[in-house]
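Render this sequence as a predicted structure.
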Amino acid sequence: NRPGVTRGKQWVTVDSGLQLLDTPGILWPKFEDQTVGENLAITGAIKDDILDIEEIAMILCGRLRKLYPALLSERYKLGDLSQYEDLSDYDLMLAIGKKRGFLISGGEVHSERTANMLLDEYRAGKIGRVTLDTRLDN
């Protein structure tokens, strides 16, 4: 379930005898729409070690704030999100880290740990059933 690992075709047995064919994926080097690349990074389809993990988590925060404010507030016990309206997406991410107690010396928020937690919980479905692809193609 990590990008860049599959080297050849392989069959994987899933629940109830269902079989899944896993094949190596190929990503093109440039996306016409930056949002496509961001969404792929958020979902983990692009290796985390080649990305700025904090920037990707900040983008996720912004998307969740806009598209799923109730789920964001509920998961991270933020209360009324209007109190965070003036915060940037990065500062909102730090507020979540503070709520979780991800503090380092001096009372600062451990931003990398917060970013990893946000992406891990999103990818594991702990935030809820959400989609980042909001375009309606007909």
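Summary. The chain has a mean pLDDT of 87. The longest strand covers residues 10-13.
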